[in-house]
Amino acid sequence: GQQVMQIPQYQHVQEGEDFTTYCNSSTTLSNIQWYKQRPGGHPVFLIQLVKSGEVKKQKRLTFQFGEAKKNSSLHITATQTTDVGTYFCAGPRGYGQNFVFGPGTRLSVLP
Amino acid sequence: DGGITQSPKYLFRKEGQNVTLSCEQNLNHDAMYWYRQDPGQGLRLIYYSQIVNDFQKGDIAEGYSVSREKKESFPLTVTSAQKNPTAFYLCASSVAGSSYEQYFGPGTRLTVT
Fold it and tell me: Could you tell me which chain A residue has the CA closest to the CA of B105?
């Protein structure tokens, strides 16, 4: 079945360092979504990418959708302690009625 | 104040008992979803519903049941047949279709001993 993978599983960075997480799908996606889950919290939608090669920015966060629409990345510039959490990507299943979530990348930021 | 609510936040049950988790939304969303999250794990889909009185099994439906009698409500029953029920359960809703963001509730942490 359709699989969505993310690497790395964990990332520990010093505050101020950059961070990148990568998402790879076994199938071509019509769109990809990114969510953030703070420790003890619930996932919160960050962004959706739709077009091949699309790049979107939200302050220090840069999201990219691959040309083949099978991979995506999230890059955080100059991490802050408020960036701590797990970042998930999610893509629609082939028939589009629900989503497959990646396993997430857990980010720790050391002050 | 629109949103999605789940209750209770923490739930403790003895093994062999069925337990029902509540999920209510006032976002007027047609689609609702139940996910299970284990420590350090991603989200696994249990059941989803695109419209009232209709629902489909997700990836890990065994030992769970749902109903969708009202648009606003999508309760999940964890039955005694579920072998490892202790987990964090998240309910979500969205506009129907795959192009819309999901709104998650705060979750219910179920512990079965």
Answer: A42
